[in-house]
Write a structure and sequence with these properties.
Layout: E1 3-5, E2 12-16, H1 27-37, E3 45-49, H2 50-53, H3 61-70, E4 73-79, H4 87-96, E5 114-120, H5 143-152, E6 155-156, E7 160-162, H6 170-186, H7 191-194
Parallel strand pairs: 2-3, 2-4, 4-5, 5-6, 5-7
Antiparallel strand pairs: 1-3
Helix pairs in contact: 1-6
Length: about 210
């Protein structure tokens, strides 16, 4: 299961990063649902399973950048690992969001697009509060994502999060899946998007590029 949809010209790009998708309750289900939407939507949909595409972690940067360049909505679909993204997703970000392409002088390829995080956690929702074992509300772990969007000119959309993925009841999981599919089908006609302004990318000087 590598990818679905219309290829690099898709308006909706769903990037799935789950290192054990065969054991997933949430990500695998949402991935299948997104792939099934392609035939019913006017907008093209591409679903890219990063762990299936790059089992050796050798990322085809040109292919990933081409898919991103064509998309209007970029979806990051992954479980939360140690308060962040899985390792291949982080490597993908390091290599694909390159200086001079995604940010910095000349790096305007992502400006004007939208970024939507669709994440799942093992911990239940009540663990993400000051009295829970994660000690903070879930939003406290999102600044790296939000700043990545700001640095590249992506507009950050309110995330969709499923807590307690291992134990959530089937009815709640189905409702979550339906919301996910509905949002994809209705994009960009979301009520909250109308109230958001386009993101202005942070200005990064040429001498601030990453160290070699």
């Amino acid at each position: 299961m590598l990818g679905y949809g219309s290829g690099a010209m898709a308006d909706l790009l769903i990037l799935v990063a789950h290192p054990q998708i065969e054991h997933s309750r949430v990500a695998a289900r949402l991935m299948r649902r997104a792939a099934g939407l392609h035939a019913s939507l006017k907008a093209g949909v591409e679903v890219r399973d990063l762990y299936a595409l790059y089992p050796d972690y050798w990322i085809d940067v040109a292919a990933e950048q081409a898919a991103l360049a064509a998309a209007k909505l970029v979806v990051w679909l992954h479980p939360v690992h140690w308060y962040g993204m899985p390792p291949l997703m982080k490597l993908w970000l390091d290599e694909v969001f390159s200086f001079g392409w995604a940010y910095g002088p000349g790096g305007q390829a992502l400006r004007g697009k939208d970024l939507w995080l669709v994440a799942s956690t093992g911990g239940p929702q009540d663990s993400y509060q000051p009295s829970g074992y994660n000690r903070h509300f879930f939003d406290a772990f999102l600044p790296p994502y939000e700043q990545t969007a700001a640095l590249t000119g992506l507009r950050w959309l309110p995330p969709l999060v499923m807590h307690g993925a291992h134990r959530v009841p089937e009815a709640e999981l189905q409702a979550h899946e339906d919301i996910f599919a509905q949002r994809l089908a209705q994009y960009p006609d979301w009520p909250e998007i109308a109230a958001l302004e386009a993101e202005t990318a942070c200005l990064v000087p040429a001498d601030a590029r990453p160290a070699d």
